[in-house]
Amino acid sequence: MVKNLLLLRHGHTKNTHPEGDFYRELKNKGKRNAQRIGVWLQENNLQPELILASPAERARTTAAKSCKSAGLSTQIIANVPRLYNAAPIDLRGAIAKTPNSVECLMVVAHNPGLSMLVGQLSNHYLAMAPATLVHLQFDGSWKDISRCHCTNIIEGASLPETFPFNGSGGTEQRIRPAYYYNQTGVVPYRIVDSELQILLISSSSGKHWVIPKGIHDPGMNAQESAENEAREEAGVKGLVADFLLGRYSYEKWDATCDVQIFPMAVTHELAPHEWEESHRLRKWVSLAAAIELVNTPALADIIGKLPAYLEGIQHD
């Protein structure tokens, strides 16, 4: 059976990081090019079933950005420690452990190891620029991979700058991948001494108060994505109701983002070291204060619907 091996070098990266090479982050250029590679994969029906990624920040982010833009869940990504700055022998060792049921595998790692591996497998050395994808094909099993046919060499920087909306084949073009424009969020609440309290967090700029919300990641339903945003942005866990409290839209990335909002009963607050965005502030306020503090009228209206929802579930 023909196997498809996709070798992707991570995108353009910042030169330094205070904690060292392992933590160097992608530049915006690197993020966009990784996303362009993902769109190319979707358009060419080369969506991997499994992605093996170096655990370095730049490789993990490249894997996630390309995966989401291909319309795939990041749950197919496996971080493999031996792929960090790996030599060809380590890359081949990781590939060899792939289940033979997988027909399309992607490996996201570093140079010079990736270029050397391309040379070994295709008899053609390629100096892979950042965010370059090499598509190899062979007939056999992953543990016996040897000679491959090089089918495509794609540089992210050479692909269209804009992204099709909505999804592959869309005629409209936008400056971000299509999934960016569908978002989810929660109104986190608790009851203390019979009083309804709402959790607000500071915005990323720190200039105003908001609720946790963000991009609806591919591979998750709306409630799962909203729960993930609550954990990352507000550092809270809880029960997200299967009830659409409301939706609103706002302008961003030269287009309109649609946001679905769900109620969330908070059951646990994470400690700062467990909270991904602990640079934000968070505070519990009354319902009236929450409605007053948020600076989006449509969102204030949605928050105001929470008591009616809670009364409804009490009577169910």
TrEMBL record:
Its cofactor is Mg(2+). This is Nudix hydrolase domain-containing protein. Coiled coil: none annotated. It holds the Pfam family NUDIX. GO terms for cellular component: cytoplasm. PANTHER family: DIPHOSPHOINOSITOL POLYPHOSPHATE PHOSPHOHYDROLASE, DIPHOSPHOINOSITOL-POLYPHOSPHATE DIPHOSPHATASE. Gene3D superfamilies: Nucleoside Triphosphate Pyrophosphohydrolase, Phosphoglycerate mutase-like. GO terms for molecular function: metal ion binding; pyrophosphatase activity. It comes from the Bacteria. Residues 179-307 form the Nudix hydrolase domain. CDD domains: HP_PGM_like, NUDIX_DIPP2_like_Nudt4. Keywords: Hydrolase, Magnesium, Metal-binding. PROSITE patterns: NUDIX.
